[in-house]
Every structure is written in C-alpha cells, then in structure tokens.
Amino acid sequence: QVQLVESGGGLVQPGGSLRLSCEASGFVLAYFAIAWFRQAPGKEREGVSCIPANSGRTVYQDSVKGRFTISRDNGKNTVYLQMDTLKPEDTAVYYCATEPGTDCENKPDHWGRGTQVTVSS
Question: Reduced to 3 states, what is the DSSP secondary structure of residue 88?
Fold first, then answer.
C-alpha cells in the first residue's frame, strides 16, 4: 500500500526556516519523481517544487526560488523540502505527492495528508 507521510511543519516567524519531510512506504521511492504542493486557506492547491528520481533537474515555483530547496535520500525513502527566509504568504498546508514516473510531469497520483506551515509574528 502506497503511503506518504509529511512532517516538520509548525509555526515560525517571518524570515525563519523549516524542513519538511515526506516519508514513503509501500513502494521504492528511488523509482519516482516526488513533488511538493501547498494549499492556503481559500486558495487552490499549487505546485511548489519537484525532484526527479535521479535528483537531476529540480523544479521550483517562481515565488520560492532561491528560498526553498528540495532533496531526497532514497536510502531513507524520504524527500525533504528545506524552506528558508519564510514569508507570511508561505502559510499553507504542504503536501507531498508521487509522480507516475521518474520525471516531474505535474501529474500527481498518490498524496500524503499534509503538514501545516504557519508563518507569523
């Protein structure tokens, strides 16, 4: 059974940092691209970042470029999202999702339940 579990969210002040984790089970993470999405209250879910299976060409939404870094540890079946210089507009529930293959295609199929990130003073 494919399962994704996000962790690492919380309350942080503007300018602070958080590292989110997405731990996978029930499949071999190394064979799939993994994406992070977020959904703020009253807004649609949006893509934040994606990392292909070979950790090659990573993808970032323009608003997080230079502040967020996606990485993966296939030995631990885990993908990370390091978030630095956080802004109040980054407040959202963050989800990780599998892509159907090795590349980032923006076709998420399995989802985690999400972790809340709140940026506020």
Answer: helix
Q: How far apart are CA 116 and CA 112, in angstroms?
A: 12
Q: What are the backbone angles phi and psi of residue 30, rounded to the nearest 5°?
A: -60, -20
Judge whether 120 and 11 are in contact, CB under 8 Å.
Answer: yes
pLDDT by residue for the chain (121 residues), tens only, comes to: 999 999 999 999 999 999 999 999 999 999 999 999 999 999 999 999 999 998 889 999 999 999 999 999 999 999 999 999 999 999 999 999 999 999 999 999 999 999 999 999 9
Rounded CA separation 93/1 (Å): 23
**Cβ 79 vs Cβ 22: under 8 Å:** yes
DSSP code string of 38-81: EE-TTS--EEEEEE-TTS-S-EE-GGGTTTEEEEEEGGGTEEEE
- Show Cβ contacts of residue 12 under 8 Å, excluding neighbours closer than 6 positions: 18, 86, 117, 118, 119
